[in-house]
What does this fold into?
Amino acid sequence: MSLFPNVPKIQYEGRGSKNPFAFKHYNPQEVVLGKTMEEHLRFAVAYWHTFVASGTDPFGVGTAVRSWDSLSPMDKAKARVEANFELMEKLNIPFYCFHDVDVAPEGATLAESFKNLDTIVALLKDNMKSTGKKLLWNTANLFTNPRYVHGAGTTNNADVFAYSAATIKKGLEVGKELGAANYVFWGGREGYESLLNTDMKLELDNLGRLLHMAVDYAKEIGFDAQFLIEPKPKEPTKHQYDFDAATTLAFLQNYGLKEHFKLNIEANHATLAGHTFEHELHVARINGVLGSIDANQGDVLLGWDTDEFPTDLYTTTLAMYEILKNGGLGRGGVNFDAKVRRSSFDDEDLFFAHIAGMDSYARGLKAAAKLVEERVLDEIVERRYRSFQEGIGADIVSGKATLASLEAYALQNNPIRNESGRLEQIRATVNEIIFSV
Ligand code: XUL
Ligand code: CO
It folds into this structure.
């Protein structure tokens, strides 16, 4: 039985197609720089936004109209599994991602929650087997339930720490059972509201301890997923410890965790931190920890995590440029951690939103490939830094220079000349490329 009977299978029809149920740019088998689009992009559906979110906002109840709305919690969970695989099939999306509580309702006790989860995981496994769809990552939701009011791994309450650890243990077992490619840690409540009542050192040490326990347990059970941390500066916590890529990297290094983790970089989290998406991707890339991305976008006029489907081509191009420069995302992928607007309440909107996001990333990939192939930015950057390729610059880079040798050079080097950065001209060049693909 179909849950989306009004939606056909979405095919690639190419540029100029007027069919709203068709891809204009995402052509899975098209080869770009030696790999198919499908291999480059590894798209994933975010279960929570697509099958659970109802369109609530702080001033209003849900607006989404779904066929499973009136069912009991367990039947609803089962209907959502059907919906997930039908949507993935129709959109030709190979992966999905979920939090434990997205797929199965919490019970009255931890044991009951685990039991519910086991029932749904068995169903997910059957569907994965029959459809060939895969799990990009799973995670434990350690932020919604009131028990996490003071944090999970960084709580002041050891009982909550223990509960969180048990939930992560189960998450790792579920990930292994479903063959997850990655396992994500996003610390929505791992931060603080005021230093007046916070022992920051103990909280961070405990978070380090919890992540080491997770690394050890994954090894013990032979779960070989890539561990990912997803930085975010705030919301829900006022000051979140994994603020941005650089802060998270310092944390991982401090606690001896860097070799076990990569980063899952989310576009809207980057902008909330006061960075561009490409900045965060770049920081992760040059430090060797770019693992996966949560593809969405914020709204410049709104200061919170709006999680819109990504449609800004400038951003998707520069994001794909970083990903290509990284040699791809490896086991990671492009997860649509994005929700339809509250006013887009029909089932069909779920499909239109994914089509828009997938086409925007496909077009970003094509434009980025052109930037790479034609060495447009490489040439600009190499030229800009050419003073470090010979003479005194080469001495600096090779480690030969000292303060004394640089003083001797500077004393006789008059006057110093700088060159224009040519930024407007460069931006115009990038525009030409984006609109040519
Ligand atoms: C919240 C967010 C999460 C993580 C997974 O802003 O991005 O959904 O992606 O917990
Ligand atoms: Co996210």
